[in-house]
Amino acid sequence: MNAIASPNLAQVLDHPGIWRRSADRQPRVRALSTGWTSLDAKLPGGGWPQGALSEILFEHDGLGELDLVMPALAALTQEHRRVIFVAPPYLPYAPALAAAGVDLRFLHEIHAGSTEAAWSMEQCLRSGCCGAVVGWLPDIDYRSLRRLQLAAETGDACAMIFRPATHAAQNSPAALRLKVSNSDEATYVDVLKSRGLLTTTAPLLRMRA
Description:
This protein has helices at residues 9-13, 37-40, 65-78, 94-99, 114-126, 142-155; strands at 31-32, 48-49, 52-58, 82-86, 107-110, 130-136, 158-164, 176-183, 186-194, 205-208. The chain is α/β, with parallel strands linked by helices. Strands 5-4-6-7-3-8-9-10 form an 8-stranded mixed sheet, with helices on both faces. The radius of gyration is 18 Å and the shape is globular. The chain starts with 8 loop residues before the first helix and ends with a strand. The relative contact order is 0.19.
């Protein structure tokens, strides 16, 4: 009987599904560039994790939280990939979106109440036909967040949700959590959680004066 060759430890640890915590080895993460160089440089894979859920937590409206995701959404629509807005609190302003590079032919909006928004977002993510699904879900619970994370994995899409910063201390299954805040008349972005990130730096991005 021929002996069956067994993989050695180095081969096992080199598998992309295995992450080794070390200073010189970063996890292999598929990501979509955020369009912000300083932020990409700090995130595993260099951007928004694909097939995963990202949370953007903000102190109050108008801090530039939508600006944070706009370069990535524009890039997706320019590649003719669908982007879905679910339950935005304000009517999206088409001229501003177009000026940011968004191809409006590939941007769609779903109006949904608080009870339907998470379900609508989950179905879009699972469909496999969306590049990104962006939802405004201020009161979503952990179980629903977990369903969105799994749906993003199933549909291989970027899931992004906006929530108030008051939820920052709560546990979340999201692969990436960012906090958008204002200080000294500038907008900052801090990494609260990132799957595979060895260290965090705060603030790591100053968006505007």
